[in-house]
Structure formats: structure tokens, C-alpha cells
User: What shape does this take?
Amino acid sequence: MTHRILVMGDNHGDVRSLRRVLDDADNDPFDYVVHVGDYTNAWRTARQDDEQTGKERGREQLEAVEPVLERFDELAAHGLVWVYGNQDYFGDLDYELSVGTEVPDDGVVTVGEVAFTSSLDHVDAETVLVTHLEHWRLADQFDGRAHFCGNSHRGRQKGRRLNSAFLQVRDPRTEERRVGGYFVAELDEDGLDVEMRSIGELTRVECERHGERGVQFQPESRGCMFCNEEGTLWREMCASGYYGLTHDSDRETVDDEDLIDYAARLWEDPPEGFRERFESYLAELADDRYSPLTRADGGALTLAENSYSY
Ligand SMILES: [Zn+2]
Ligand SMILES: [Zn+2]
Assistant: This one.
């Protein structure tokens, strides 16, 4: 049985892009609509102004977005299934969306015939994981049925995981508005089949160097996320490798050599200079404040306390 799912997220207070998706998708039959969060830009507003202004903005934006979300809930046979994002303070705003089904982060909810969770502890072969964050550790080892996420605004499909890029973002420097797109995912026993639908600038990016890390969906001007910023690749290699080496054991540290070996084996054909470059990244690990790993007392690698998206 195939489930047809509209996947989108990261509209950041923008209602127009959501309406465009509705116009675009209106005549299509969907079983579910999934929104991966960031309805608002409350957190960003709070950083620019102050917390109170941010949270007020967040409440207004949730109220403004809700009627449009209700139309998505009606569009799909089993309605809208959603999570909050970090911009929405993960739901800690003075307004609660009451539309569709919020995916629980402490259990599983069954909607129609599909089980959804937002908790990594509840993932199994029957369950669809919906999270705002990408969770780098799952990039190569994921036992669930599918994983839908957002947050990084870097769209990508790798295996059963789809990051839905963004609907609308503003450039942090220029404030320029960018409109992205949404996805039609068909989920069946064989996995996930994904079609990108741009309503703005999204294009399909298949990088020659990094194609093994999935198909990307980015504005043409940005191109491959790993070519643009190599740190992105190393963070994922660190998280995925560390998880692979430790999750079935009592180990809490790994050494550089094992991690590099493990990461290299994730590739059929690693990009040129892979080992050397990963080695130098690890040598300068402390310079990357987003890295999921850090040095333990003896110098071995261990999980950083505040990893952004391990
Ligand atoms: Zn976002
Ligand atoms: Zn690349």
C-alpha cells in the first residue's frame, strides 16, 4: 500500500508561501500533509529585538497561519500531521495550534493507518519519524519507516529521510526573501519516492563529489551544501560515525582513526582526499562550535554536551 504525503516546513511566519502550496496542490489526492515546523520566526525576532517581542510575534504568526493549516488538514484524507520548530520555541509560545495531529515527542500516534512519532526512542520499522531537527546521527542508520525533518533549510533525500528545505526564508544578511518549495513523497514497502515541487527557487542538486550523501534540493545559487561548506559534511560524518561505533555498546569515546575508518566505509567511493581532510577537521575540532563531538580528557572523541543536532 502506498501513502501519498505532502511534506513541507520552515515558512517562518510567511503565509503567502503556504497559500501558494495550497493553490499548487489543490487538485491532488493526498493521504497526509506533514509540516516539520518553524511556522514562525519568533526566535529570530527575539534575537534581533527582545524575548517578549519575539514571543508576541510568534503568537501572532501562529494565529495567522492556523486558518491556512486548517485547509491543509482538509486537503488530505487523514489530515495534517505536524511538529513545532525551534523558531516556534518548540511550542512554548502563548498560543497553541489546534489543527490536525501534533506528533508526540514522548510516544506514538496512529493517524489513519500510519504510526507517527517525534521521539527517536520510539522509532521502529512501522513508524514514521517527524522531527524539526535533522539528527545527523540517523543519516546512515535509521530503522524507521521514514523520517521527515527540516530546520537546516537544506533540502535533501537520502534513503528514507527527507529534509524538506524551506518554504520561505530571509537571508540573514540582506533580509532578502527566498521562496522554496514542497515535496510529494510516496511511501510504500520499498521506501520513499520523492518529487520536489518548487514554488520559488528550489532546484535538484546532484553533486558529483557528494552524490552518495543524497539528492539535494537547494536554490541554484547555493548548489551543493557540502561543497559550499565542508564543515557540514564533517559534522555529519562525526555524528554518523560516532553513533555507528557506540550505539550498541557501552563505549563513550572513539579514537580518530576508528572514526575516520568508519566514515570512509560509509562511502562506495569517498571524495578525493577524504581521509586527510577529515583528519585535519578533527585536529581543529575545537574551532567548530556546531560539531557534535569534542575531546574527552584523554584526547579521545566523545559527544559534545551541546551538539546542535546530534
Ligand atoms: Zn527554519
Ligand atoms: Zn558537493
